[in-house]
Each structure stands twice: as structure tokens, then as C-alpha cells.
Amino acid sequence: MVAPSLKLQDLIEEIRGAKTQAQEREVIQKECAHIRASFRDGDPVHRHRQLAKLLYVHMLGYPAHFGQMECLKLIASSRFTDKRVGYLGAMLLLDERHDAHLLITNSIKNDLSQGIQPVQGLALCTLSTMGSAEMCRDLAPEVEKLLLQPSPYVRKKAILTAVHMIRKVPELSSVFLPPCVHLLHERHHGILLGTITLITELCERSPAALRHFRKVVPQLVQILRTLVTTGYSTEHSISGVSDPFLQVQILRLLRILGRNHEESSETMNDLLAQVATNTDTSRNAGNAVLFETVLTIMDIRSAAGLRVLAVNILGRFLLNSDRNIRYVALTSLLRLVQSDHSAVQRHRPTVVDCLQETDASLSRRALELSLALVNSSNVRAMMQELQAFLESCPPDLRADCASGILLAAERFAPTKRWHIDTILHVLTTAGTHVRDDAVANLTQLIGGAQELHAYSVRRLYNALAEDISQQPLVQVAAWCIGEYGDLLLEGNCEEIEPLQVDEEEVLALLEKVLQSHMSLPATRGYALTALMKLSTRLQGDNNRIRQVVSIYRSCLDVELQQRAVEYDTLFRKYDHMRAAILEKMPLVERDGPQADEEAKESKAAAQLSEAAPAPTEPQASQLLDLLDLLDGASGDAQHPPPLDPSPGGALVYLLDLPCAPPPPAPIPDLKVFEREGVQLNLSFIRPPENPALLLITATATNSSEGDVTDFICQAAVPKSLQLQLQAPSGNTVPARGGLPITQLFRILNPNKAPLRLKLRLTYNHFHQSVQEIFEVNNLPVESWQ
């Protein structure tokens, strides 16, 4: 005999009483079989009870899709008990992915026009929960009529449904504009709060609505002033703050209406000052209202004194014991630091104290703000604080802190010596966390400060003698010792204490670097080159250096092996040219024009030509063999045509200075995407040394009034090409022309095939998720031919 179907309460008790998951599944499977049988029999009396049990099963995570059509039958029923369960089932079991949801459109339309308030409420709740764009377009007129119904219960739900419709179909904005002005005069709290939310959605998605509602700014100001002074009603007050939810919504709407509009901003200035000074901050509700006030002051064209007041409020937030409040204060100050730098500077000591927070998110925000506060007047004090933080900061913050210190020092360094000391401190403390260009930047800085060569080489030698684990520090120290080893041995530096160093100690230290298991291949290359350069700067015998170089001729690392073979050949075959080839590196201007660089190179070549002795023709032909040392002895090698026998011609040919190819013509940039102020531009570079490689820099900018968050750019190319995507510089593009996002694409096109790109952009903008997929077929011909 088949067991009878259980009631909902009995089913819940039996499921909760199951001791194992297998028992629970057995109970649910039996009851689902009863529910299916009841649906097949078409029992109209108990259908809503069976569906209620099925909804409970669905809430536990078990399949319940077979009840979708029963929801439609219950909704079409004339009984309220059936409609209640049917609408609940539609909200839980149906969504836009199922075509069945379109079948209830007529039922909802009939229920909205019936005039029965509970039924209208059920239909509106269902429409605002799972209404698709098609349903919203079909039912918008019915919802508009309900906005002006006398019942507050129906109007409140109709307003919330209109908010959902605007989010789904922004084109419906014109339908709901007229009723909103009348609804602002309502005294019912739920209706007024919903109306403010609806107007906010309309203004964010429709420029016409934004212009329309700027006329009601005085009315909104009056509503908020009444809330602040007399209150709305005691039942809506929280911790002594009059209706904070309504205050926050009105402030958010005023922020949208006053943005980039002088007249509206002027109207609300006095009110914002009143809210900012009279709001109680002893409770979290007051802090919420105050923070929303600060955001509004920041976004509109407010008076200068009002902006200073907003910054001071955020400064008080930094002293709050609640970590969440301190976090939002740091985030807001970071947004303000560019426009109100001097006002934010007053709170610099408090910001620096936040670096010692145990919460990782707080200390990261404090670090970003501290770096943004660095300028030429406080760079020394701020660098001391940041360097102290670098020594004790968590490992996940060390890379950001080190990079920030290096960038700030490069931008605001008062002297070159201070700049060098700062970089050395960073390399000593967190050398493994610095950016890849830190080594090149420091070597260039030291090379350009001729008066600090002796000081730098002695500082670096001392640092290297203490620690060889920080690879960037070891690389800079090896380069500096190789270039200025003679100054290290002279010991005539007046900047630091005298230190007597002999040749053997220097060579032993470089050999220690070469033999260390911590040294990277690039570091060993620096050390080997330093040893080679010291062979021309030291006065003693070079046999020790020659032995070390010969050892690495059989190194497993190909780059290091090639370098050792070349240096060994230079010792054996071209020893008379070694001093000229291993001269000190010339000074390279960092950002000078191309013409100036070429002129300096030509001048350096001329000086080398004058200094070099006039070689004979056989010497010139032997010198050419240096270009291909791995081919063995050049006694039987085929030589190119003889050079011009002018003095220094061989050396000039070796350096190849006069024969540098002209720079390629620049490739024009290309704009490939633009939508609501978000723009994506592509710039192209083809390195002369590798014409098959194309470097594309994608730059995303944002000129709109809302931030772009979670920005992701993905690309694809035809199979005949190879694509490598580098990590982007960030994932947020601030509003109104903030710092753009850049991302590098490396495309290898050895066959010079026509280039096509397929891009996919995903991001969030104005509280909406955007995804765009498009092809770029109009790339410049110079980018691939």
C-alpha cells in the first residue's frame, strides 16, 4: 500500500529528523514522487499545498523544475491561496533563462488591473523580482497607473517595481518622469523613500531626466532640512538620528543633481554645511549620514570652505575606533588628495600613524595615501616614515611600498646623494621586492653624478660585503665596482669614514657572488663583467681574473658561457685592445631627444677614434673576429672587405656608431572603442632589433561621471600569430579623466600576415555590468608589414 502524502509541517519534521543524508534523500525522493503524482492527477484543491512542499525541497537544494508549470496554473486561479503560493513559486523557480516566465505576463496584467490590493501586491513583487526586459516593456503602462493609486501599500510596491524596470530597460525613463514630481509631495515614509530611489535611478541612466529633476533641487533641500531640524517621525529615528536611511538617499540624489552644475550646487551648499555640523557622530547612523554628506560635498561644485570642512570630517573619522570608518576615511582622502592636497596634508601625521594598523586593508590604504601626500617640501620626513614602515611591513605590502618609495624619491629628490642613499636603503631592506627597472635607474643615476662616484662605490661595497642575498643590490654593486673600482681602492672619499680595501678583497667578494647559490644568472653576469673591467683598473696581476673567466667557459648557463668565452678570447687574442674596449660607460641622458643622443654618440665615437692608435690592416681584420668569437680561431676565417685605413677606423667599425639605422616612422594610434565616456586606444611599437614583434599598448580612459570598476580586457589573434598579454596596470578607471589603465600586448608575426584583433571588454559602469566583444580589422598597415 502506498504511503499517503505528508503535510508540509510533517515533511519538515521528518527531513529534520533524518540522521544521515541518505535518509534525507530517501524522504525527499518519496515525497517528490507523491508531488508528481498529484500534479499528474490535476488535483485543484491540494495543488497549492503540493507546490508549497516542493518549494521547501527547492530551498534545500534539490531539483524542483517540474513545478514550473504548476506555478502558472496557480497564478491563473481565482483563489487567493492559490495565487499566493503560485507567485511565490514563480519568484523562486522562474527567471529570464526560462521561456516559461513569459507565460505569466497576461496573468500579471490581469491581476494588476483587478483592484484587489493583496493580489496587486503579489503581482508587483513577482514582476520586480524576475521581470525580464520584455515583461517590463509590456507591463510598464499598468505600473505607471498604479503609481497614482490612493492606496499607499500599492503605490510603494509600484515604485519599487518601476525601479526594477528602469534598471532593466532605461528607455522607459520617459514613462515614469511625470508621476515622480507628484510623489515627492507624499508624507508616507515608504513612498517618499522609494520615490527618491526611483529618481536616483532615472538621473543615473537618462541625461534628459537629470536635466528635468534639477528643477526640484530646492524641494529636496527643503525635505532634508526638515529632517535635520524637526525630524520625520520618531518611529523612523535610529540612535537619535532622524530617519538616516531617507537622509542618505536624499544626499545621494543631491550629489548626482549637483555634479557639474553650478546653480544646483549653490542651492545645496548651506544645507550641506548644516548637516555636516549638526549630525551626531557618537552613533554609526550619524557617521553614515556624515560620510554621505562628505561624498556629496566632494562631488558637487561646493565652496572651498565646505571642502575643507569635509576633509576635516574625514580626519576625525581616522581617529574613530571602528576600523570600517577609518577605512572609508582613508579611501575618501585618497580621492581628495589631488584636488585638495593642502587640506589633506593637515592630517598627514594621523595618516602615517595608520600605517601601523594590524588590519592589512587599512595599512594598504594608509600606504597609498601616504605616498600620494609626498611632495618636495616633506619628502625627507615622509621618506623616513615610509622607510621605517618598509622594514616592518607585511610581505604582501613590501613590493608596493618599495616601488612607491622609489617613484617618490625619483620625483622629489632634493639632492642626488639623498636620492642614491634612499634607493640603497630600499635595495638593502627589500631588494627582492623592487621593480625590474630599479637596477637600471640607479646605475644611470650614479653614472650621471660624477662627484658621487667614489661615495657610491664605497657605500655599495660595504653593503655587498654585509649581504649578498638581495639580488638587485648585488647587481648594482657589481656594476659600480666594475666601473669605479679604481676609486674604491684609492680610498680618498671624504664623505664617509676611510676604509682601506685591497685588490684581493675586492676580487674575493666578486668571486663569492659568482659562487653563491643565491645569485641569479643575471647577477653572475654582472659579477663576471665587473671582474673583467677590474682587469683594466687594478694595478696587480690579472692571472686570478683570467682563471675565473676561463672556469665559466664551460658554464651550463648559455649566456654566462658566451660572455666568459668572449672575455677569455679578449685576453688571449686582443689583449692590446682590452683597455679601450673596457673603458667606463659613457653618460646616457634619460629622456633627452633622439637627436641629442645621436650627437653625443657621434662625439664619443670621434673621441675614441682620436684616442685609439692607428692599427694596421691585419689588426683590423683580426678585430672583426671579435664579433663572432664562438666560431673559433680566425686564422682561416674569411674576412670581409678591408676597412678604410683611417686612424681608429677599426674601433669605430666595432662600435658601429656611424652606421646606426634611422629610427622607424611612428605608427599612428587607433581608437577602437567608445561608450558612455569609456574609451580604449591602441598605440603600436615595432622594436628595430626584432621587426617580427609588435608591442601594442591598450589604454583605457574614462571621461564620464562614474568610476569604471572590475575592468578586464582580453584579446585574441589568428592562429598564425602568437599573442602574450601582460598584466594590466589596474582594474579601476576613475571618473572625469582619472588615471588610465594600460596593458601591453606582445604579438609575434614572423610571416607578416595581415593583423586582426578580437577584443572582449568587461567592466562595471553606473552600477551595470557591461560586456563588449568586437573585432578590430582596421589596424595600421605599418603594424604588420
Walk me through this protein's architecture.
The protein is an alpha+beta fold and 785 residues long. The longest helix is centred in the first third of the chain and has 21 residues, at 21-41. The strands form 2 sheets. Strands 1-2-3-6-5 form a 5-stranded antiparallel beta sheet, with no helix packed on it. It has a 3-stranded antiparallel beta sheet with strand order 4-7-8, with no helix packed on it. The protein has 35 helices and 8 strands. Helix 18 packs parallel to helix 21 and helix 22 (379-392) packs antiparallel against helix 23. Among the domains are: 418-581, Leucine-rich Repeat Variant, CATH 1.25.10; 670-783, Immunoglobulin-like (Sandwich), CATH 2.60.40.1230. Residues 591-660 have low confidence and may be disordered.
Q: Which architecture name of the domain at 418-581 does CATH use?
A: Alpha Horseshoe
Top-tier CATH class of the domain at 418-581: Mainly Alpha
- Helical content band: 55-70%
State mean pLDDT (0 to 100 scale). Answer: 83
Q: What is the first-to-last residue Cα distance?
A: 82 Å
Radius of gyration (Å): 37 Å
Strand order of the largest sheet: 1-2-3-6-5
Unreliable stretches covering 5 or more consecutive residues: 591-660
Query: Which secondary-structure class do the elements indicate?
Result: alpha+beta
Q: Write down the overall geometry.
A: elongated
Q: What does the largest sheet look like?
A: 5 strands, antiparallel
User: Remind me, CATH topology of the domain at 418-581?
Assistant: Leucine-rich Repeat Variant
**Quick one: how many beta strands?**
8
Number of helical stretches of at least 4 residues: 35
Residue share in β-strands: 5-15%
